[in-house]
Amino acid sequence: MPIAAAVFGHLAQRDIRRSSGRLGGGGLALGGLILGYAGFVVGLPVILIVAAIAIPNLLRARVVANEASAAGSLRTLSVAIAAYDSTYGSFPASLEVLGPPPAGAPPSKNAAGLVDSTLAAGSRHGYVFLYEPYDSVGDGRLDAYTLHANPIEPNRSGRFYFFIDESGIIRSDREPASARSPPLQ
Asked: pTM value?
């Protein structure tokens, strides 16, 4: 409203000057200008203070949401990896094979349809997922894995790094997480 008061105050003063004395109200126009500019001068700092408080809180909320999404995505991937193992007899060679099959095709070892294409591509909500399957006993079967969720931009897209392996325990840390990191609470 202060901007409207200042604009209309200027317009009224212009009309009064152009009227050659036929119009009055110069005092009201001046009052509108003064109140408009005073409201703007008083209101702007308030707006800036509110923005200074709100913007960091919104950014912090986005980071927390990204972290919750990363932990949930690790849980989803862990369940999908276990389902793949029970169906095909080993852990998948990559996250991509957990993704959806081509339109109209049935699920297969190369496109199991267990997670959506975004998660199968290894990235979601500010985190990148790094999957490493391996043969722990040397029999040629992928029977173990590590899966990391790392923030794409540390401290901006997420503050924590996450880790899970075939044990199903999600672990987190402020630096790249591992099997020695504390479990997620």
From this structure: 0.72
